[in-house]
Specification:
Largest sheet: 7 strands, parallel
Shape: globular
Strand content: 15-25%
CATH class: Alpha Beta
Structural class: alpha/beta
CATH architecture: 3-Layer(aba) Sandwich
CATH topology: Rossmann fold
Bound molecules: nicotinamide-adenine-dinucleotide
CATH superfamily: NAD(P)-binding Rossmann-like Domain
Order of helices and strands: EHEEHEHHHEHEEHEEHEEHEHHH
Radius of gyration: 20 Å
Distance between the termini: 53 Å
Length: 349
């Protein structure tokens, strides 16, 4: 069986990816995570008795430890998801984003290069490094058009700029050093175990508590929503069959204005919890000052992935939103244990 290293394994998407890889016995998985505020051990609880899964607590910037782990594991691939990921936090503390996203990716690429130089020819020839990135590197769209893999990079937030920098490093390590890299850029993910600072889980938790649901600006910013399990499947496909040195966009084919999405979410809550004293939940929606540099619209053209590798999202936004809201209702205690009170982040005073 192949061995894969997944960085950011205890994060939202990384944990979904580990659960997916193990559910289908696709690989022996070694999860790497420094266990930051955004990590959740519980998201990997279902793998605690799985002898083909291991979670190692380490910072990818610790090159000595990463060299040891990679040498011992002799992986057939690395799926790199570890990053600081919340745009608002990147406004408050940009240093963390430069360090973890740019320096972290650099360290991991160097560790990979060292490993490939020391391992067998057979391992080297089959090896792949998947660098996981975001649509935010492309900047912002107006009312029409979509991002393709050829869209020029125009990152607007410190988060997006740090991811763009990391993408360029990954590409350069392919071109210059021949590290077998493939890059994926995905749209906004949603689903179970997402840290409740992001739009959907934050809004669900606020609504369940009868608190105001903050919507930035007028709520007209458009995002393309991708269900996390669909994303996990796409990532594995791109790792296995994506062309080396290429980029692949991954989208959910579900564009929504934030205000429409949150109104839909409130309607789901009204339906699932008809006895709640907070019905109709939409009355909790409150408009607050906009995020500085807030991108207007993202839209992903993922026809390259569809045409070359035959992938399409399976979950539409209605089904995915219902599943997600139901998960947060059933797992309220998971959110309540988290040390984040839902306070506003990312304002420039
Ligand atoms: N969530 C989204 O909507 C979305 C959209 C596009 C791209 N992405 C990308 O997908 C990846 C995963 O995102 P997510 O939503 O799961 O993020 P997340 O914040 O939920 O999880 C990230 C994980 O990475 C870990 N990590 C951070 N720095 C690390 C380091 N130096 N060493 C080891 N571990 C470290 C954190 O501890 C955390 O567990 C990121 O690279 C992100 O940029 C996410």
């Amino acid at each position: 069986m192949r061995t894969l290293l997944v960085t950011g394994a205890a994060g939202f998407i990384g944990s979904a990816l580990c659960r997916f890889l193990r559910a289908f016995d696709h690989a022996r998985v070694i999860g790497i995570d420094k266990m930051s505020y955004a990590s959740s051990r519980e998201s990997l609880d279902c793998l605690s008795d799985d002898k083909n899964f291991q979670l190692v607590e380490v910072d990818i910037c610790d090159s000595g430890k990463m060299d040891e782990i990679i040498k011992a594991a002799q992986p057939d691939g690395i799926m790199h998801l570890a990053a600081e990921t919340h745009v608002d936090r990147s406004i408050d503390s940009p240093y963390d984003f430069i360090q973890n996203n740019i320096v972290g990716t650099f360290s991991l690429l160097e560790a990979t290069r060292k490993y490939l130089a020391s391992t067998s020819k057979e391992k080297r020839e089959g090896f792949r490094f998947l660098h996981v990135s975001t649509d935010e590197v492309y900047g912002s769209l107006g009312e029409t058009g979509s991002f393709t893999e050829d869209t020029q990079y125009s990152p607007n937030s410190p988060y997006a700029a740090s991811k763009a920098g990391a993408d360029h490093l990954a590409r350069a390590w392919y071109k210059t050093f021949g590290v077998p890299v493939v890059i994926s850029n995905c749209s906004n993910n949603y689903g179970p175990f997402q840290f409740p600072e992001k739009l959907i889980p934050l809004s669900v938790m606020k609504a369940l508590n009868g608190e105001k649901i903050p919507i930035y600006g007028q709520g007209i910013n458009v995002r393309d929503w991708l269900f996390v399990d669909d994303h996990a499947e796409a990532l594995f496909l791109v790792l296995l069959r994506g062309r080396l040195g290429e980029k692949y966009n991954i989208g959910g084919a579900s564009e929504r204005r934030n205000i429409d999405l949150i109104n839909d979410m409130c309607a789901v809550l009204d339906r699932l919890l008809p006895e709640s004293p907070h019905c109709p939940h939409s009355k909790l929606i409150t408009f607050v000052s906009d995020r500085p540099g807030h991108d207007e619209r993202y839209s992903m053209d993922f026809s390259k992935l569809k045409n070359e590798l035959g992938w399409e999202p399976k979950t539409n936004i209605s089904t995915g939103l219902e599943k997600t809201v139901q998960w947060y209702i059933n797992n309220r205690s998971w959110c309540e244990k988290i040390k984040y009170s839902g306070e506003r982040l990312g304002q420039i005073k």
